[in-house]
Write a structure and sequence with these properties.
The protein is mainly alpha-helical. It has ten helices and two strands.
Length: 217
Amino acid sequence: MGALVRLLLQNGGGNILNQVYNSSSDNDSKLCFLTRITNNLLSAEMPVITVSDVVAACHKQKCGKALGPDGIAMEALIFGNHHLHVHLCVLFNLFINFSYLPSSFMQSVMIPLVKNKCGDLSDLNNYRAIALSSTLSKVLECIIAKFVTTDSEVECFQFGFKAGHSTSLCTSVLKQTVDYYTRQGSHVFACFIDFTKAFDSVNHWKLFQQDAMLSQR
């Protein structure tokens, strides 16, 4: 870890991380998305978070996780009493009703992890980052997730970052498909694309705008 810190300092680590982990700049798409969201907020019925939602979200969290920037252990919410959940319910509803989140909720601690321990430890591309979010923001995100799920056809083909799915399932589907056609005496051609830092360099504003369009269908 010390070698990585020295490497970042020598190469302008702040600028490097900003380039790698920030979305591409697109002010036009950003303005279009914010305008669409603002117009929708004026006519949409805001969801209401219940105490039961807070309790269920807390119980979905895992114990023994590293602390985020707020320094609050998840166990404090999981084993908290009813009064705590009521106060969290009031707080979360205020966030939604006023469309506001304090800056502390949007902060996270970035931890670099080595991809290949046998590789070059001085190569920045040999590291991936994980974010340790605040405890309260994790619970809020878990609650909001149930309000933003869609039945989009695109989601049916998603295997990663989806509950009950994994890339191993995707591999199994591909293998079964190949086996089926080879048994029929057919040729199978496949095309694989590996985008470098695809999730790190994606234009988030266009992605948000596309999701907003799909949710209105």
